């Protein structure tokens, strides 16, 4: 199964007000493993970022001035995403911008190119109702280091989201290419231990009697009922 974890940065929060996509970052997973076949592009939006957006991503007009326009990278993007299941945090935001960019070029919508969408924000709210479910909060919850994340960046955020998604879906928590089977000190794999039959050995009549005698002694010593009886 091919999945693409995707994030964007934009000049503002509303494409209907002329805001544009300025960065796209994608991480490819095949059968829940990182392939290294990432897609990352900066894009010249031919406009300034709004002050609030610039504070989030730090991508200045000067930095983006020599980058390609969206129409120059769209065919690469279409080919990269084609048929994949796309994983996005707060999907309506990114899809709104991408669909707007595609429509402006008279292309079928972004969603018509892919095999479906998973919104990790929706998943997180179902798993953690009433909790903060931002990407940073989820990284903290699942023990994923984001100490190097000073500003938002599409590729970095896509990489973090890939780890979060794998952790949330109880799959592979690491993006490593190879997974080693952990072994116990006896050389038996933990998987074998988990599958082993649990043998229950019940106490004999003599052992039960000896235990009762011990409890009676504790009762007498404390002139009441010992904790072991109340705990039972």
UniProtKB/TrEMBL annotation:
A divalent metal cation binds at residues 7, 9, 157. The keyword Iron-sulfur does not apply. Gene3D superfamilies: Ribonuclease H-like superfamily/Ribonuclease H (3.30.420.10). Its cofactor is Mg(2+); Mn(2+). Residues 2-174 form the Exonuclease domain. GO terms for molecular function: 3'-5' exonuclease activity; DNA binding; DNA-directed DNA polymerase activity; metal ion binding. GO terms for biological process: DNA replication proofreading. InterPro entries: DnaQ, DnaQ_proteo, Ribonucl_H, RNaseH-like_sf, RNaseH_sf. Substrate binds at residues 7, 9, 57, 157. Transmembrane segments: none annotated. DNA polymerase III contains a core (composed of alpha, epsilon and theta chains) that associates with a tau subunit. This core dimerizes to form the POLIII' complex. PolIII' associates with the gamma complex (composed of gamma, delta, delta', psi and chi chains) and with the beta chain to form the complete DNA polymerase III complex. This is DNA polymerase III subunit epsilon.
